Protein 1
Amino acid sequence: MELRPILLPPSHDEAVIGYLTDLATRIVNAIDTGKDATALIDEFNAAADCAYDSENFISAVESMDLREYVIITLSLPPSVPDITDAEYIELITRLMDADGSESEQHFWLGLLERNLGCPLISDFIYWPEEEEGEMTPEEVLRKAREYKPIAM
């Protein structure tokens, strides 16, 4: 199924991605060598419109390519009030099948979390309850819609 453009990660200027990736690399190198990376982090945050600290960069470099990290940073998922069940199923299927790049998968998961209001959707997709076993995309959607936050 082809997804509407609003359900796809936005495209970004390669020059901006290159600049931010280089900056992220310099930040990680500064942190690794014990240098003060505050000015570099401030520059990154201003350019990417985010509020990261050194821990964000340390975590990122341990788990992904810095270029993917930059793309993820620039690709916050929107609120889309008219997502259809078929589109939800397609997004869940793509995640279950590991289709797309890491940044695309991150965008789609964020899109599902934001629009379904279920922070556990990644658990339903990747780590279902043992008694339930692997779920179908339809079952994942049903469980996400049934989710109710715990009142404190």
Protein 2
Amino acid sequence: MQYLTRKRRLRHATCEPGVGVRARSRYSEGDRRIMRTTNGESISGWDTARQYRERMPWMRLLKILAVVTAVGLFLVQMQGVLVTVSGSAAGCGGDWPLCHGQVIPGQFTLHTLTEFGHRVLVPPVTLCVLGLSFGMLAFWRKRRETVVLVILMIVFLLLQAALGALAVVYPTSPVILALHYGVALIAFASAAVAALFIFGQQGWDTLRDRPVSRGYTRLVWALAVYTYVVVYLGAYVQHTGNQLACRGWPLCNGSVFPGFAGVVGINFLHRFGAFLLTAGVIWLVLWSWRLRAARPDLYWGSMAAFTFVVIQAMMGAYVAWSHASVPSMLLHGGFVAGLFAALCYLALQVMARPRSARQVAQTASTSATPLHAAGTAGAASGTNG
């Protein structure tokens, strides 16, 4: 009898126009408690599972997973740089995925520890990538940028592992080794952009509905592609062992223009490309300054790219002055990863959101206004009563 009385009160409360959303949810929650505790037995098992799903902070967990995945891929990339600059590529011999024929090597030298640590880090990061991909598709599977980011993360992570295995088992040319670094860079940048995409929901992601000029879009995409070319050229210089072909900085062997011939020319070409990249990022910042009122996401993204490119130039000088020390090479590789990720994020932001996403936002905004008005009217009627 008590259950039937509460059920009538619930039906009356949900039909009463003056009762707000909180009151309706309170009645429904009380009704669920009675359904579960009538005669001391559980009547509805699905209700408990539904409440569990509703109470779990899935979006918060997805944000944490996105940060962990991006940081993990960054550490994998930096560990790979450390393996290269420390000469630890053969630290596990010629075996893969085993290390000296064992799952865990019996003896650890410094080179073995460096290479084995790089390999051990890959499996948990792979699980994070798969979990993040599943979560993004669960929330935004109809968004084309989500699908593209998921494909980039998974494909380039697997490709990175395959190229790493080939580098160990078979003799690999500097071209392939440089490509290995470039593939790892794309895997990290896609995870970083995915994390920024998740954190930007109901925020900077909605700013994509404000279009920018075609010239600005072309500049952002051109800088992102050009940065990848400059990074690949730098990785090629590193894997050929010609980091110090140009001694001194900013001059190259005491010359402003030593030419583009030989190993000195390749090294100088990388420096010249970095100079043009810095000039392009400065141009991007000046253009973004004029858009900062309507598009603060583009302005702050360009400022992040400018910060990374300036520090990257300083780290390039540090490499030359320190004779390619291990810390200088790690810092050089780390900041260029941040630069590329910032430009990739800008490349996403200059693209307009899909029409379905804009329609969902418009529907939510139009439906929120009557609901808010009804709640206000209910509160006012309760006060007057």
